[in-house]
Amino acid sequence: MNNGISARAPKNWLLRTAAAALMATGLTMGGALADDGLGTAKAPIELRIIANSAFSHTWQSVLVPEFNKIYPNIKVTIDGVPYNEHLAKLMLEATSASPEYDVLVIDDPWTPQLAQLGALVDLKGPKVAPITSKDYDWADFNAAPLAAGEWKGLQYSIPVRSNMLLMFYNRAHYKKAGLPEPTPALTWDQYFEQAPKLVQDMNGDGTIDAWAVDTFFVRDQLTPPIWQTIMNSNGGSLLDDKGAPVFNNEVGVAALNMHKKLLEYAPPGALGHGLQESLQAFRQGAVATMFMWGSVYKATGVDPKASKLTLNELGMQVMPVGKASAGAHRGIWTAGISAKTKRLNASWAFVEWLSSKQGEKTNVSLAGSFPARKSTLSAPAEDWQKPVFSTLQQAYDVAEKGKMWRIRSPRSDATQQILADEVARALAGQVSSKEALDVAANRIAKVLK
């Protein structure tokens, strides 16, 4: 008789269950919040999570069953929200007197905004620390992704689906053009020297049917990170040490001109391309390179329903090297616990499991998510992971050194929208790169005051 407790349950499952029993009598153990524990077979806990619709269904279908092998009495519902509606929904949760969600999945630049509102629990603080497993190992996280969940010295969320802006390439295109495959030493100057040769006729019918590059060019908040990464690789920054905009200098202008120059070697109509359009072009073999968020790698090289490419044709590395370093850009999905939840123990059980060493490995293997832990990156187990993990570790290191991420502020979303507007105007040729960045810098300076 197993009494409903899985043989795989971690030690802290028993500790939490004991804590819940004490709480029922009005006592606490180790300072934990008095909530409704981890549930029982007769009275399970209902846990609701809000996540991005790009991966929420996969989490629900493949990760929740794995979680329930350990915590069978926590019933998890994950609601997916489209990206352009996600922050608004999180803000509604933060200000609502009757919130719906216990766990909030948060994009990289949003943590300061939610933390400032008091919407999140400090995961290293007195409410959560007593119910955290001793072997959780905070030091095992890479610094760059872990920092995405920090604000003013407190840890409000934890990496659960890491991402970095990287360079994808199609080996067949380079071979056809007689060019060597890209390496992490490839410079931006070399990239632009090779680009004309990658605009070519791949099927031999005399008509150009392949281009050198596709990426984000459309007016969208995910477009400025391309320009920013080029700028960062050349030693530029968004803000100075006092938090004032400095990107409208010579380095920033030159970087935006380089972003615009990519259009010369991109498919017709690329000015309207964002994530889906550039990803589709690359997966169909229409472009040689793509600057894209790395998490699409597995589906691009493994899933024949999504892509014509195979792992043998697919390459990935950090973005080209500028005067200062290679390029990368941090984009980390983190999970935090709502400060208004009445199910703290169950919420932390899910977040802790998903971000633990074993949970992260499960997430990587079954959902294709990128890991944040050093131990996961140093021990790849599947063929698709080997080139990815070495590149990802390099990207984390590059991003940490060059501070390659979006503005960290409670007004980060507003600043990113300004950059999206002005970068788009420059890319479309409506204004010069200098004029666009001057306008953006002036507007952002006012927003950040």
Detailed description of the structure:
The structure is a single chain. The strands form 3 sheets. This protein has a 5-stranded mixed beta sheet. Strands 7, 8, 9, 10 and 11 form a 5-stranded mixed beta sheet that branches. Strand 1 (45-52), helix 2 (56-70) and strand 2 (74-81) form a beta-alpha-beta unit. It is globular. The chain starts with 10 loop residues before the first helix and ends with a helix. The protein has helices at residues 11-24, 56-70, 83-95, 111-116, 143-147, 171-177, 188-194, 224-233, 250-261, 275-283, 297-302, 344-355, 357-367, 374-377, 385-402, 412-427, 433-448; strands spanning 45-52, 74-81, 103-106, 150-151, 154-155, 158-161, 164-170, 211-214, 287-293, 314-317, 329-330, 333-337. The model is unreliable at 1-9 and 17-35 (pLDDT under 50). Helix 8 (224-233) crosses helix 9 (250-261) and helix 16 runs antiparallel to helix 17. It has 2 domains: 11-163 and 332-379, 3-Layer(aba) Sandwich (D-Maltodextrin-Binding Protein, domain 2), CATH 3.40.190; 164-329 and 403-448, 3-Layer(aba) Sandwich (D-Maltodextrin-Binding Protein, domain 2). Helices cover 40% and strands 13% of the residues.
